[in-house]
Amino acid sequence: MVFWLLLPAFSFAQSEVADTDYRNFPIIVSLQFHNFALPFHDLGSNFMHVGISLGTEVSFNGKQNWVQQFQAGYYLNKEMGNGFFTYTQTVFRPTVFSNFYPEIKAGIGWQRTFHPVDAYKFEDGSYVPTPGGKSQLIVPLGVSVGYNKYSEQTYLSPFVSFQVVPSLFYNDGIPLSFYSLFQVGTRIHLKY
């Protein structure tokens, strides 16, 4: 609802230069903090479990305002288990003032979480080790702010992002769980 209310404000405030000069396939690098928690609850805990991600994006219209991102990452979490993920998101990124932009993004992906300690299951009257971890379907939903000053040379476009990540199939007792991602990173637009 808020998105549709703010859309008219963003549509006429865009900078023509920032939206017409764009290079596909920048390298997206971010330092991230991963947390298993309800959205917006105990925000300080969002900075406990560090990870990294790497990705790229491609524009739908040759501009930076509508893109499809592709990301893969790894995080360390000694309480819930380390894991890795891959996802894609559709991103709306209008330039609102002097190369600064907000960003709204939503997508779908896959996450694999490993057991933090040895895990066992009851089978044939005794407990036996169970390997691996748990695969989950994830739906990352995020907001970001950033700066994108186009250059003919290689240039950086830094951003800060917060994402709420609902995940399905955590276990039989908890079919839906939530993660959060706080990311600080940059898009590296290489000169080809």
How would you sum up the global shape?
elongated
The CATH top-level class label: Mainly Beta
In terms of per-residue confidence, which ranges show pLDDT below 50 for 5 or more consecutive residues?
1-19
Biggest β-sheet, characterized?
9 strands, antiparallel
Task: Please tally the helical runs, counting DSSP H or I stretches of 4 or more residues.
Answer: 2
The topology string of helices and strands comes to HHEEEEEEEEEEE
| Helical fraction | under 10%
Could you tell me the radius of gyration in angstroms?
A: 19 Å
CATH architectural grouping: Beta Barrel
Mean pLDDT: 85
- The overall number of domains is 1
Count of DSSP strands: 11
What is the terminal-to-terminal distance? 40 Å
What does this structure look like?
- This protein is mainly beta and 192 residues long.
- The chain has a single domain (2-189), classed as Porin (Beta Barrel), CATH 2.40.160.20.
- The chain is built from 2 helices and 11 strands; from the N terminus they run ααβββββββββββ.
- It has helices at 2-12, 16-20; strands spanning 27-36, 50-59, 66-75, 83-92, 100-114, 119-123, 126-130, 133-138, 141-147, 155-168, 176-189.
- Strands 1, 2, 3, 4, 5, 8, 9, 10 and 11 form a 9-stranded antiparallel β-sheet that branches.
- A hairpin with a 7-residue loop joins strand 4 (83-92) and strand 5.
- Residues 1-19 have low confidence and may be disordered.
Summarize the structure.
The chain is mainly beta and 192 residues long. The protein has helices spanning 2-12, 16-20; strands at residues 27-36, 50-59, 66-75, 83-92, 100-114, 119-123, 126-130, 133-138, 141-147, 155-168, 176-189.
